[in-house]
């Protein structure tokens, strides 16, 4: 199950979705484009069958500027 998480960089907070788990391979990292947010990827993450992380850029989605 994907979970929203936050990391604090000191001057901003970066939010990301982590599908969790460890399939033994390298995780797939998604960085949404200018008009996208992590929510746009939630439907496809379970289908991939791998650990995935979707990072929201500064000032986008739940991340602060």
SSE diagram, text form:
Elements: E1 3-8, E2 13-18, E3 28-30, H1 45-48, E4 52-55
Parallel strand pairs: 3-4
Antiparallel strand pairs: 1-2, 2-4
Main features:
65 residues; mainly beta; 4-stranded mixed sheet; 1 helix; 29% strand; globular
Main β sheet profile: 4 strands, mixed
Physical arrangement of strands within the biggest beta sheet: 1-2-4-3
Classify the secondary structure makeup into a structural class.
mainly beta
Helix coverage percent: under 10%
- SSE order: EEEHE
Model regions low in confidence, pLDDT < 50 over at least 5 residues:
none
Shape category: globular
What's the alpha carbon Rg, rounded to whole Å? 12 Å
Q: What is the number of helical segments per DSSP (H or I, 4+ residues)?
A: 1
Strand content: 25-35%
Q: Please indicate the count of domains.
A: 1
- Mean pLDDT across all amino acids: 89
The count of β-strands is 4
Distance between the termini: 27 Å
